[in-house]
Design a protein that fits this description.
alpha+beta, about 140 residues, seven-stranded antiparallel beta sheet
């Protein structure tokens, strides 16, 4: 089995531009935070779900449609809530981190509890794995 840090659906440049336009049009882009807006994590190495892992290994490189259906914010992060038709995800609430604030990290998007529904936006993402392999110095 393949070594990985996480598997995710990485949004295409066109989709990222669509979401940035939506953020601009709705007054969110001017927020003072660190911009991420690049992927929806499907499986992190800390979670042992063989079905999701097999799906990710089998479908790596494929493009999938995600539907952005909400936006949420906490004191540490802001994220888009997404639906993933036909794609398994280990997160209780699939999401794409938009910004982090202060000492917030992208992981803090998992703790967002208040979501505001927005009109659905279809975007594309490519399934990729990310690995952080440390080499002896």
């Amino acid at each position: 089995m393949k070594e990985f840090e996480y598997y995710g659906l990485f949004i295409t440049d066109e989709s990222k531009n669509t979401l940035i336009k939506w953020l601009n049009d709705n007054g969110y882009y001017a927020l003072n935070g660190k911009l991420y807006l690049d992927h929806c994590t499907l499986l992190h190495k800390s979670k042992d779900d063989i079905n999701i892992r097999n799906f990710c290994e089998c479908c790596e490189g494929a493009t999938f449609i995600m539907k952005v259906i909400g936006i949420g914010r906490s004191d540490k992060a802001m994220a888009f809530k997404v639906e993933l038709p036909g794609v398994p995800c280990s997160n209780r609430i699939p999401h794409i981190t938009i910004f982090t604030f202060g000492l917030g990290k992208p992981y803090d998007s998992n703790n967002i509890r208040d979501w505001v529904k927005i009109p659905g936006i279809d975007i594309s993402g490519v399934l990729k794995s990310v690995s952080f392999i440390s080499h002896p110095g």
